TrEMBL record:
Localization (cell): Cell membrane
Transmembrane segments: 20-38, 59-83, 144-164
UniProt protein name: UPF0114 protein C6Y14_05405
Taxonomy, superkingdom: Bacteria
InterPro entries to which the protein is assigned, alphabetical: AAA+_ATPase (IPR003593), IstB (IPR047661), IstB_ATP-bd (IPR002611), P-loop_NTPase (IPR027417), UPF0114 (IPR005134), UPF0114_bac (IPR020761)
Record-level Gene Ontology MF annotations: ATP binding
Membrane topology per record: Multi-pass membrane protein
GO cellular component terms, semicolon-separated: plasma membrane
Domain AAA+ ATPase, chain residue ranges per copy: 310-443
NCBIfam families (alphabetical): HI0507, IS21_help_AAA
Keywords linked to the UniProt accession: Cell membrane, Membrane, Transmembrane, Transmembrane helix
Classification via HAMAP family: UPF0114 (MF_00143)
Main location per the UniProt record: membrane
């Protein structure tokens, strides 16, 4: 693809910068919301006074409450337009990991925003129509007729928008995740789609390694919709009794790339096998009621895998046995099912792999090869302190993948205590890891210890 000339690039950036002209409009809507706050409390004060003085009958109270509901719904519509519109059309707000982040904001886009606004308008119209019917003796038949017609028009418009947004959202999702459906990877300096085009055409100088180019030409991986059967386990938080049978690291084994599936094997199953999970765990099997503290909405939101496409990180923090690894593996399995390459290992195993690459003088190449995996999972961070050299290796891994690919990290220590594990490298590492990350905290007793205690009691 030809590189745009400098004047063209400057013109494009200048046009893109004009989006900030919309920012004052959203702040103007904030002022309008203040007006509605004043209107709400004025109506509420009037209702209280008339109720206390006996001047309010049942019809008046009902109409006054409906007015208050109307004001609140309009205010909700305003906040949706302000926050969602600013996030969609001006700039990201960056609430990822904030405990008060609205659930709908994590997947907001122009289609979602239009449907939500249309639904809110239908709700407001419903309140207005209900007010007319409550006060039917003082409302003309002409007003009732047109109020009903207008309300039905709003409902029809919302239904049409919702119907149209479904196929559009599905198509956008396919395009958004299309890079994960074929085993074609770009170097850490190139674009995956551009590399795929060169690999398919066999052009020399492609940033795609030759073995990936062959796979791209001969066996493109389609989206796999066959569900993976759940593994029968004794508990959702099974200990690593057979860990070595799933994951092993040979110091003399070469890891030139993130493993790529054999074209003869089913895509999703091959990716799951090559991810080297300690056991197959599914998000659906996770017992959400067991941890005393868990942001369940955040877990459901992460299950949509938007964080992988956005190249963001996930950090699960909690004591042993609370389900951190189960959630990490569950997200990894789902990512494999969605067409993404995933690599799983404990912190100790990643340290051994990176140390081996450094000893061989190919640490830079190893980090670049790991770019083939959009998602890496680092389990059991913080269980043992690391020497300064190993801590620096982890820093290089986190820094290399910063805003480039996603990491899932499980740890038993809050990020503020990572200096106990990584020493002086901790502040810079935490800064990069947590900048674009969803922090999920789990608290509760160990599931495994509860099973042991139950066995003793029996």
């Amino acid at each position: 693809m030809p590189t745009p000339s400098q004047p063209t690039a400057i013109l494009g950036y200048s046009l893109f910068a004009t989006r900030w002209l919309q920012a004052p409009l959203y702040f103007g809507l904030v002022a309008a919301q203040g007006v509605y706050v004043y209107k709400f409390f004025r109506e509420l004060w009037t209702l209280i006074l008339r109720s206390v003085t006996g001047q309010a009958d049942e019809t008046y109270v009902m109409l006054a409450v409906l007015k208050l509901v109307d004001v609140v719904m309009i205010a909700n519509l305003l906040i949706m337009v302000i926050v969602g519109g600013y996030e969609t059309f001006v700039s990201r707000i960056g609430l990822q990991g904030h405990r008060d982040q609205p659930e709908w904001l994590s997947h907001v886009n122009s289609n979602v925003l239009k449907v939500k606004l249309a639904t809110a308008i239908v709700g407001i119209s419903s309140v207005h129509l209900l007010q007319m019917f409550v006060d039917v003796h003082h409302t003309s038949h002409h007003s009732l007729l047109w109020g009903t017609v207008i309300h039905m028009a709003f409902i029809a418009s919302a239904a049409i928008l919702a119907y149209m947004s479904g196929p559009m959202a599905a198509q956008g999702e396919r395009l958004h995740r299309g890079h994960g459906l074929t085993p074609v990877y770009a170097s850490h300096e190139g674009a995956a789609h551009e590399g795929a085009g060169r690999a398919a055409g066999g052009t020399n100088g492609s940033s795609v390694p030759a073995e990936f180019a062959v796979a791209a030409r001969t066996a493109p991986v389609a989206r796999v919709t066959v569900p993976i059967p759940a593994q029968t386990v004794s508990s959702p938080y099974e200990t690593y009794e057979t860990y070595d049978s799933y994951v092993s690291y040979d110091a003399h084994e070469t890891h030139e790339t993130c493993d790529v599936q054999d074209p003869a094997e089913p895509g999703a199953e091959a990716r799951i096998r090559e991810a080297r999970f300690p056991a197959r765990k599914l998000l659906e099997e996770f017992d959400e009621e067991y941890p005393r503290v868990l942001d369940r909405k955040a877990v459901h939101r992460l299950g949509g895998l938007d964080f992988v496409a956005a190249r963001r990180n996930v950090v699960f923090i909690g004591p042993p046995g609370t389900g951190k690894t189960h959630l990490a593996v569950g997200l990894g399995v789902r990512a494999c099912q969605s067409g993404h390459q995933v690599a799983f290992a404990t912190a100790a195993q990643w340290a051994a792999r990176l140390a081996d690459a450094r000893s061989a003088g190919r640490l830079t190449e190893e980090l670049a090869d790991l770019d083939a995996c959009p998602l890496l999972i680092v389990d059991e961070v913080g269980y043992t302190p690391l020497d300064p050299d190993t801590a620096h290796l982890f820093f290089q891994l986190v820094a290399h993948r910063y805003e480039r690919s996603s990491l899932i990290v499980t740890t038993d220590r809050p990020l503020g205590r990572w200096e106990e594990v990584f020493g002086g490298a901790a502040p810079a590492m935490v800064d990069r890891l947590a900048h674009h990350a969803e922090i999920v905290r789990l608290e509760g007793d160990s599931y495994r210890m509860r099973q042991v205690t139950s066995a003793w009691a029996e």
